[in-house]
């Protein structure tokens, strides 16, 4: 529903001088409220100590995350290997990466050299080059 722009036409008395039954809940009398202040309570309570303790624990966790972890990582790092090359990762002077120890290439080291190329099925004058092989001749390999 829509209301008229003029609140006086809403059909209700909106005057601040109109006293309603629940006005004390919305606008308490400051003079009577001043007498309700309690004195003599404890400055430190169990709930207050719990709140401060949780905040301290939270601050400690954030400090550990953003200060302690980077410092610990820096202090316990191991130097990077050059694999016999000149820079990190083992690039040599020609820019080539040395062969990684183990059998990590796309072509298995156990693949015979005579199967690295094969005549094409369409045109037997063209040679196809082997791009992937796995010989599966050792247990534990998939």
From TrEMBL:
<dbReference type="Pfam" id="PF03935">
    <property type="entry name" value="SKN1_KRE6_Sbg1"/>
</dbReference>
<dbReference type="GO" id="GO:0016020">
    <property type="term" value="C:membrane"/>
</dbReference>
<protein>
    <submittedName>
        <fullName>Uncharacterized protein</fullName>
    </submittedName>
</protein>
<keyword id="KW-0812">Transmembrane</keyword>
<keyword id="KW-1133">Transmembrane helix</keyword>
<keyword id="KW-0325">Glycoprotein</keyword>
<dbReference type="InterPro" id="IPR005629">
    <property type="entry name" value="Skn1/Kre6/Sbg1"/>
</dbReference>
<feature type="transmembrane region" description="Helical">
    <location>
        <begin position="49"/>
        <end position="72"/>
    </location>
</feature>
<keyword id="KW-0961">Cell wall biogenesis/degradation</keyword>
<keyword id="KW-0472">Membrane</keyword>
